Amino acid sequence: DTTLWRWVHDVTPESVLAFYQATASQVAGQSGSRGRFSMDEHVVPSFTHRRPRPLGKTRVPTRGRSYPAFRLYVPFDLDLGRFVGLLVRKAREALSQVLPDLVAEVRHLRRWAKVPDPERVRLIFDRGGYKGSLFEALMADPQVSFIAMARATQRNVRQWAALPEGRFRPYHPPGESNPNLKLARSVTHVTDCRYPLSAVVIRDDTPGTKQRWRVLFFKNEPGHRPRAETIDAEYRQRQHHETGFAQYVHALVGHSL
Whole-model pTM? Predict the structure, then answer.
């Protein structure tokens, strides 16, 4: 529609920013939020033939190949079940690079909404955020707690494999039919992070399995020491974020938006 196209391109950056802050901070200020945010990305392919397109190419999971694309970084409030805020980045800007900006954006929106203790946030993120220097920065921030999926690097696996068998116990999370899972608490030393990272180590003893280790690094909120099972259950709430992206794409025709 040419009228809509003209209207979109006549909108000023100042108007866009004012609309964004008014709507995003309204969500951030809703009662019920405890400042727990899933951090993830969504790759949006760009099929326009206009040039130049300074986006770069990256693999689009839904297409199985690389296209010019950009990445939407949309924090998801796990207690509200709502997206909060938005950062748009080029194709090759990974979560590990963008996560500090996401934390700053969430804090900004919470301050704008005048929520109590706006700096205190709890982050849940997957392997895309794995980076030793990032973990060091998060560990050094007294207002941040987190749960993050670890990467099975050679150095990490050596540490997990060296754990005494007596540290492990059988683990049967709800909805999981695998009878060969075992769980232990430990610490892991990772490259480029001077702090030892507390870890929930989940080992799959199924013969021939291709993914034996599922490990969560975590930093607890002050005064809290949840069970290892509770930490794993909280991490699994990230699935609501994935569901939100699916609804955005299919129910709301998000890529067209």
Answer: 0.86
